[in-house]
Amino acid sequence: MAQTMLLTSNTVVSGHPLLQSLRPKPFSHLLLPPSLVNASSTSPARTYTSPVALFKAKTKAPAKKAAPKEKIKVEDGIFGTSGGIGFTKQNELFVGRVAMIGFAASLLGEGLTGKGILQQLNLETGIPIYEAEPLLLFFILFTLLGAIGALGDRGPLFGFTKSNELFVGRLAQLGIAFSLIGEIITGKGALAQLNIETGIPISDIEPLVLFNVAFFFVAALNPGTGKFVTDDEED
């Protein structure tokens, strides 16, 4: 009984329960001063502080969207193209329309007057090709390069589309180039080279010739619908 009272008095004086006095002291009690150790042990409630991040995660900047490429618009109309400078489909379409009108007008003029394109312009014909006017040879070469070295195009086979209009324009360019070469050498126009009667009224002209004239005029004056098919649009 006396031992129990002694133990109880010791624990009350020291202010610590018996079990806590027997437990080994933590390492923090050796480093901290006694006042802080007693304050932390006698406080009935424990306070918790929220952790503070020393290094904040870097926020990724939103990815910049690439600006869409401006597409070259092809305006409607006979000369309403906006292809700029260079060998583009828009410029080729413009040259093809001019060639269709020129070829149709030359065929109609030869059928009525009996003179080819060069004779209608009072240019010398029936001479070797190397004696022709340099400007005329340049025009022939330019027309051949525009028609033969053209850019590839895709689209439906039939219909008034821009790809088909481009194809007909190339045919007109080739027709003008070869008719000029033939007229320079032989002195005969495109129809005379094919042994078609010329210098007659329009009502007596061959129906096939009139059909070709009307076809080229309609193809040139009626702008094609739709747009060119390119690899960029498919991707």
From TrEMBL:
Entry membrane topology: Multi-pass membrane protein
The keyword Mitochondrion is annotated on this UniProt entry: no
Entry GO CC: membrane
Localization (cell): Membrane
SUPFAM superfamilies the UniProt entry points to: Chlorophyll a-b binding protein (SSF103511)
Major place of residence: membrane
UniProt KW keywords: Membrane, Transmembrane, Transmembrane helix
Transmembrane segments: 134-152
Alphabetical list of PANTHER family matching this protein: UPF0041 BRAIN PROTEIN 44-RELATED (PTHR14154)
Stated name of the protein: Chlorophyll a/b binding protein domain-containing protein
Organism from which the protein derives: Cynara cardunculus var. scolymus (Globe artichoke)
Lineage: Eukaryota, Viridiplantae, Streptophyta, Embryophyta, Tracheophyta
